[in-house]
């Protein structure tokens, strides 16, 4: 009993203890869930109409797309492409689900049959699509190549997605009809016409200088038209670029080195002779260029015409005799020395036909090629033997044996084409022989049986050898650029960025309005690291950072951080100022014009009454005044002989009088016009439907937060 009494006496204290314990438990769980939510948000690239796109899945698709697009595509370009594909897929899938449309098994088979109808591996002996071969192919993939089977599944998904998209768009188009009433309206918009007299008081008659537009005017306009002036978060930066560019001393050193090859050199140092033979006296030009001189551009034995030489130096090089050397000369970012090795007469174009026999491992050889190189050579030689005695079989052999699908339909023929169009071995046979030559030539693509059908326009061609040195900064120059950039970075961090740059004659380049997913910085190209830095959470206005860029450095400073919202007055001024100025000029004109007839308005404003005939609603243009939809609309609201009040138009304030109404010719049936309306509606579906769906979709873009860009 005593214990119970003590518990009762301390009940409030116990309640507080229990409450605190419960609160601690809930709080801990809240933090735990908060971490989970944070983790989830960091792993979700986007949520589109309630569907999440995971970071892992997105990056896997980016990796595949990067391989497809090749090394020339930047990482951001690839990611943006995948992003667009993912958004489109999610937006469209929402529509498919709401409508309950899908691609069933039977339709999928029909789609595959259509898609693979010309693929040789799925055709039977009669040349028809064989579904059993397709089933066998898929089963084999599933059993032997998991990666290949995954690729096949993705292929089927893509075909299904395309079919669904086509079905959806067709359904929308089917619902877009042109009624007879719409046809009649269309006919009347085109056919109803009015002739008018008008006076235009141009806005240009009032000088801009007397129309005051305040910041509050612009601000009020922005608030009244918020949709037009929404902006994403952005950053402003400025930067100084330090380029590693070859100095005059660097260029002179390169020229001096090349002159050594022109003149030759013999140096005797401690009994060892270091000899460089003059380029003009060299016999093995290829080894001399590639090994001795270590040219940046390797020797090319093919002959060239004058038109292939650098324009500025073409005459000087083309007119050299065999063995003579020209240079050093500066061309396309390099110093060069060129020697004419040989001269001959070569046709500038040729016409041939050929049969290509590929072998395993040859470039572009199809997977079904089974011949080894030796077997392919034997086949080519056998066909050549037959053709030498009966060239009429050439077309037949092209159809039966050639793997060059680009020429099979033309009986293996490549019509007139210039010298050096084909790969070197093929080119040499067709241009260095004569018309009628027939032979076998091996290239990277396989064995070609070639017949030269024609050559024309023989002219002088030269074989040249060129020693080339790219003009690059020396190590000393690069070191100096690094020191200059480092010193500027340090000094700008201690003082004013602009002042320090000016004191050192550096050019400061501002870049405003950078968006979080931008990739390019004007002037320095693809510089995603600079954009990331500008949007880092802890980046402060005034911060300075150095970035390595190709061929130098950038010292950047964060100038301003702009939040998502409405455009600032300063940024919107260029767009809004002319609009408000025009509105104020219209009011000034209306306030000063008291006349009620065209003649009196014209006299008061020192202008003339003009006429415009055949005006239509379809094309609301007034001759002598330009496009004026509001004025034309007002004209069609007046009766014949009626004069309007003052109308604010696009190019001035107007008073108009309808002189004549010309109604459209009445038709017995407006079906033709209705058909045109239907066609107009249908034609915009492909270009506008998806964009409309995308705009209406709920898209949460977390790419910047998840750091996938």
From TrEMBL:
Pfam families: Rotamase_3, SurA_N_2
Family: Belongs to the PpiD chaperone family.
Membrane-related topology note: Single-pass type II membrane protein
PANTHER family (UniProt xref): PEPTIDYL-PROLYL CIS-TRANS ISOMERASE D, PERIPLASMIC CHAPERONE PPID
Keywords, in A-Z order: Cell inner membrane, Cell membrane, Chaperone, Isomerase, Membrane, Rotamase, Transmembrane, Transmembrane helix
UniProt cross-references to InterPro entries, sorted A to Z: PPIase_dom_sf, PPIase_PpiC, PpiD_chaperone, Trigger_fact/SurA_dom_sf
Subcellular location: Cell inner membrane
The protein's name: Periplasmic chaperone PpiD
Domain PpiC: 347-454
Domain of life of the source: Bacteria
GO MF annotation list: isomerase activity
């Amino acid at each position: 009993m005593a214990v119970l009494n003590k518990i009762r006496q301390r009940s409030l204290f116990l309640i507080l203890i229990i409450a605190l314990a419960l609160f601690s438990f809930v709080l801990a769980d809240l933090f735990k869930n908060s971490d989970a939510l944070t983790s989830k948000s960091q792993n979700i690239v986007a949520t589109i109409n309630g569907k999440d796109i995971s970071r892992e899945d997105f990056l896997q698709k980016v990796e595949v797309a990067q391989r497809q697009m090749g090394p020339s595509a930047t990482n951001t370009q690839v990611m943006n492409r995948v992003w667009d594909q993912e958004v489109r897929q999610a937006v469209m899938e929402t529509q498919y689900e709401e409508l309950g449309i899908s691609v069933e098994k039977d339709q999928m088979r029909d789609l595959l049959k259509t898609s693979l109808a010309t693929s040789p591996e799925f055709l039977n002996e009669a040349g028809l699509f064989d579904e059993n071969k397709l089933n066998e192919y898929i089963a084999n993939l599933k059993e032997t190549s998991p990666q290949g089977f995954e690729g096949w599944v993705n292929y089927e998904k893509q075909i299904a997605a395309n079919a669904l998209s086509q079905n959806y768009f067709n359904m929308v188009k089917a619902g877009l009809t042109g009624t007879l009433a719409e046809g009649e309206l269309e006919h009347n918009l085109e056919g109803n016409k009015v002739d008018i007299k008008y006076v235009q008081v141009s806005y240009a008659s009032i000088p801009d200088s007397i129309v005051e537009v305040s910041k509050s005017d612009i601000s009020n306009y922005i608030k009244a038209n918020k949709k037009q002036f929404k902006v994403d978060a952005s950053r402003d930066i400025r930067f100084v670029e330090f380029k590693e560019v070859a100095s005059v001393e660097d260029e002179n050193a390169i020229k001096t080195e090349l002159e050594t090859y022109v003149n030759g050199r013999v140096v005797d140092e401690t009994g060892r002779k270091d000899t460089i033979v003059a380029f003009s006296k060299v016999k093995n030009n290829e080894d001399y260029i590639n090994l001795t001189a270590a040219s940046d551009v390797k020797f090319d034995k093919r002959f060239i015409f004058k038109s292939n030489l650098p324009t500025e130096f073409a005459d000087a090089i083309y007119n050299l005799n065999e063995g003579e050397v020209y240079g050093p000369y500066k061309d396309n970012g390099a110093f060069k020395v060129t020697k004419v090795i040989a001269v001959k007469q070569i046709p500038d174009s040729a016409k041939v036909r050929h049969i290509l026999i590929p072998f395993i491992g040859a470039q572009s050889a199809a997977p079904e090629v089974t011949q080894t190189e030796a077997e392919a050579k034997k086949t080519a030689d056998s066909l050549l033997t037959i053709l030498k005695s009966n060239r009429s079989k050439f077309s037949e052999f092209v159809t039966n044996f050639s793997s060059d699908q680009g020429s099979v339909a033309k009986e293996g023929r490549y019509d007139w084409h210039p010298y050096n169009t084909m790969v070197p071995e093929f080119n040499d046979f067709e241009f260095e022989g004569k018309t009628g030559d027939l032979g076998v030539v091996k290239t990277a693509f396989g064995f070609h049986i070639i017949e030269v059908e024609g050559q024309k326009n023989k002219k002088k061609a030269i074989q040249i050898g060129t020693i080339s040195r790219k003009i690059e900064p020396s190590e000393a120059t690069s070191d100096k650029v690094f020191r200059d950039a480092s010193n500027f970075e340090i000094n700008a961090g201690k003082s004013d960025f602009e002042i320090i740059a000016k004191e050192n004659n550096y050019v400061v380049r501002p870049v405003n309005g950078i968006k979080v997913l931008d990739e390019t910085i004007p002037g320095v190209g693809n510089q995603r690291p600079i954009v990331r830095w500008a949007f880092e959470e802890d980046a402060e206005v005034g911060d300075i950072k150095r970035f390595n860029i190709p061929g130098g450095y950038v010292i950047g400073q964060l100038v301003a951080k702009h939040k998502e919202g409405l455009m600032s007055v300063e940024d919107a001024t260029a767009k809004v100022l002319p609009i408000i100025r025009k509105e104020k000029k219209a009011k000034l004109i209306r306030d000063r014009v008291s006349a009620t007839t065209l003649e009196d308005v014209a006299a008061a404003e020192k202008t003339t009454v003009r006429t415009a005939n055949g005006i239509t609603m379809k094309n609301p243009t007034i001759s002598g005044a330009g496009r004026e939809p509001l004025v034309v609309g007002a004209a069609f609201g007046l009766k014949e002989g009626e004069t309007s009040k003052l109308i604010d138009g696009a190019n001035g304030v107007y008073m108009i009088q309808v002189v004549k109404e010309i109604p459209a010719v009445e038709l017995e049936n407006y079906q033709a016009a209705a058909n045109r309306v239907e066609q107009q509606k249908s034609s915009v579906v492909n270009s506008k439907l998806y964009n409309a769906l995308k705009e209406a979709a709920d898209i949460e873009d977390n790419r910047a937060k998840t750091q996938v860009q």
